[in-house]
Each structure stands twice: as structure tokens, then as C-alpha cells.
Amino acid sequence: MGRLQRRVQALAGRMEIDLLQGWAADISVTLPLDPPAGPGDVSGWNLGSRELEVLQLPAAGQRNRNIAAALNISENTVKFHVRNLFRKLQVASRSEAIALAHSRGLR
Predict the structure, then answer these.
(1) For helices 75-89 and 94-103, what crossing angle results, to 10°?
(2) Is residue 80 within 8 Å of residue 71, measured between CB atoms?
(3) What is the 3-state secondary structure of 8-35?
(4) Which candidate, 100, 94, 107, 103, places its Cα nearest to that of 59?
(5) Closest CA to 4 of 59, 34, 14
(6) How do residues 38-97 score in pLDDT, each as one tens digit?
(7) Under 8 Å between Cβ of 107 and 60
(8) How far is the C-alpha of 72 from the C-alpha of 59, rounded, in Å?
(9) Residue 4 in 3-state DSSP?
(10) Cα(66)–Cα(53) distance, rounded to whole angstroms?
């Protein structure tokens, strides 16, 4: 549930849970259809300039190999930055990181 809640929050959505003890649970998720108007504040993430560059490229649909070529770094260095991004953004997957980046207007 925590992972779902973080993903919904990353997309500026709302999640409601209605528990029926011993029976079932109804989960309702509402997500906005419109992307943010402009780049949001990412200063709270404490990202380095290279980490921010690496985050923007997957958010634009780029794979590690393309990111490495675009930034003139090795693919292993890209993987290093991606791991740091996961830790700093408190996400467990590339998809979560991209969703969070999109919620702040990074493309």
C-alpha cells in the first residue's frame, strides 16, 4: 500500500481506501489528466547537476545506452547515477522515478 500511495502522490493524485473488516477493501485512485504547467521545484531532492541531467533523459524515454552517449559517459556511470537517484528520490524503480520527474514538470 505504501508503494502505491507514493506513486499516487508522485503524480499529484488522491487515493481513498474503504476497508470492510474481514471482507474486502475498496481502493479509489484519482489522477489529474493535465501535466504540470511548468518545471516544479526539485531543490528538495538535493540532486547534483549530472544527476538531474540523467533524470531528465529517462523521463524523455531514453535508455541507459542513449543516456551514456548523450552525456559522453559510460553506461556504468549512468547506472551509478540512476542508483543514486533511486536513493535520493526514495523510489524503487525507473518508472517511479520517471513518474516523480513528470509530476514536477521534467521532460
Answers:
(1) 70
(2) no
(3) HHHCCCEEEEEEECCCEEEEEEECCCCC
(4) 107
(5) 14
(6) 556 677 788 888 998 898 888 788 899 999 999 999 999 999 999 999 999 989 888 888
(7) yes
(8) 18
(9) helix
(10) 13
Rounded to whole angstroms, the Cα distance separating 104 from 98 reads 10
Pairwise CA distance, residues 51 & 101, whole Å: 12
Q: Could you tell me the three cell numbers for 100?
A: 516523480
pLDDT digits (tens, 9 = 90+) for 27-53: 888 888 765 555 566 777 888 889 988
Helices and strands (H, E) in the chain, number of each type: 5, 2
Domains of the chain (ranges plus CATH)? 2-103 (1.10.10.10)
Question: Bigger pLDDT: 14 or 105?
Answer: 14
Contact predicate 100/91, CB 8 Å: yes
